[in-house]
């Protein structure tokens, strides 16, 4: 129960408050995702989404390295380092970034162009770098809390897999391997992060910090979709230098 003298939430109450934020703010509610999952987008609009999302995917290992650099708890570092390997891969084993490039390859985007991120929307870059900076500047418990959007990721991945397979002839099962893999990884990672936050956010200030962190992360994801919607859906004003589906040089 909430301690009335300190305002500190119980672990269960803190979890409930975090889940409420996700229910209200997670980007599955964004209109762009509804268009994506129902087959309402053109190939060019799907390309734009995959290209811009690559910017976010590629930044995840940097975000996690920034978190690790602030951590003095060896057990947390040992647990967290697998997230970098999950995305970057190691040895001959591919990671999430490789699997995302399978998707962009299948959509007809040149791999060098995708990796260069030259065509990424300016707002996407700002949002992604704001996230990396946030994690680098805040305490471990707050930084860990910013990753708790993973609590809500499996549902959107399942919706995306079903919707894209059903509605887009240019999408096949083999190119959605990134999302299939995250159905296993995200719950594992979210369970650890949630437990860590519940155990280590002990004061009212710390608890408010983790709630604000999750809100911030939801805003980061939402802002990326706002940028996509404004550039490629309505009113469709593509910033100079950003990916333009009508220009063939960026296509294979």
TrEMBL record:
It catalyses: 6-(2-amino-2-carboxyethyl)-7,8-dioxo-1,2,3,4,7,8-hexahydroquinoline-2,4-dicarboxylate + 3 O2 = pyrroloquinoline quinone + 2 H2O2 + 2 H2O + H(+). Keywords: Oxidoreductase, PQQ biosynthesis. Coiled coil: none annotated. GO terms for molecular function: pyrroloquinoline-quinone synthase activity. Its EC number is 1.3.3.11. Residues 18-226 form the Thiaminase-2/PQQC domain. The keyword Thylakoid does not apply. It is an enzyme of class 1 (oxidoreductase). Gene3D superfamilies: Heme oxygenase-like. Signal peptide: none annotated. Pathway: Cofactor biosynthesis; pyrroloquinoline quinone biosynthesis. One of its GO terms (biological process) is pyrroloquinoline quinone biosynthetic process. NCBIfam families: PQQ_syn_pqqC. Belongs to the PqqC family. This is Pyrroloquinoline-quinone synthase. It comes from Cupriavidus taiwanensis (strain DSM 17343 / BCRC 17206 / CCUG 44338 / CIP 107171 / LMG 19424 / R1).
């Amino acid at each position: 129960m909430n301690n009335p003298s300190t305002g500190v939430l119980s672990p269960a109450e803190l979890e409930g408050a975090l889940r409420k934020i996700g229910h209200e703010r997670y980007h599955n509610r964004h209109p762009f995702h509804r268009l994506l999952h129902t087959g309402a987008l053109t190939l060019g609009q799907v390309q734009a989404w995959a290209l811009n999302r690559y910017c976010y995917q590629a930044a995840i290992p940097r975000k996690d390295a920034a978190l690790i650099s602030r951590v003095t708890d060896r057990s947390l570092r040992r647990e967290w380092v697998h997230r970098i390997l999950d995305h970057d891969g190691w040895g001959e084993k591919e990671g999430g970034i490789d699997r995302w490039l399978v998707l962009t390859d299948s959509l007809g985007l040149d791999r060098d162009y995708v990796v260069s991120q030259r065509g990424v929307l300016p707002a996407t870059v700002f949002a992604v770098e704001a996230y990396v900076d946030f994690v680098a500047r805040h305490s471990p418990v707050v930084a860990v809390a910013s990753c708790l959007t993973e609590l809500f990721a499996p549902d959107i991945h399942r919706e995306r897999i079903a919707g894209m397979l059903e509605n887009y002839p240019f999408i096949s099962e083999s190119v959605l391997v990134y999302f299939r893999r995250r159905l296993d990884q995200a719950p594992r990672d979210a369970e650890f992060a949630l437990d860590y936050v519940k155990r280590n956010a002990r004061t009212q200030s710390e608890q408010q910090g983790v709630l604000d962190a999750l809100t911030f992360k939801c805003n980061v994801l939402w802002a990326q979709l706002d940028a996509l919607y404004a550039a490629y859906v309505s009113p469709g004003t593509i910033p100079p230098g950003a990916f333009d589906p009508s220009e063939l040089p960026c296509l294979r």
